[in-house]
Amino acid sequence: MSVIVEADPTRAETLRSAMGPGVLVLTTLDDLRRHLDAHPGEDAVVLGPSVDQDAAFFLSDGMRINRPSLGVVLVRRRIDTPLLVDALRNGIREVVEERNLAGVNDAVRRVRDVAAAMRQRSSHGEDEGRRGVVVTVFSAKGGCGKTTLASNLAASLADNGRREVCLVDLDLNFGDVAIVLQLFPAHTLADAVPLLETLDLPAVMALLTPHSPGLSALVAPVEPGSAETVPASLVTTILQLLREQFAYVVVDTPPAFTDHVLAAFDQSDLIALLATLDIPALKNLKLTLETLDLLNYPRERLRVVLNRADSKVGLALSEVEKTLRVPIALHIPSSRAVPASINRGVPIQLDDPGHPVSIAIREFGEDHVIPLTRTSGEPIPSTMRADRRGLLRRRSRTL
Ligand SMILES: Nc1ncnc2c1ncn2[C@@H]1O[C@H](COP(=O)(O)OP(=O)(O)O)[C@@H](O)[C@H]1O
Ligand SMILES: [Mg+2]
Question: Which ranges of 126-220 would DSSP assign to H, the alpha helix?
Answer without folding.
Answer: 146-158, 177-180, 201-206
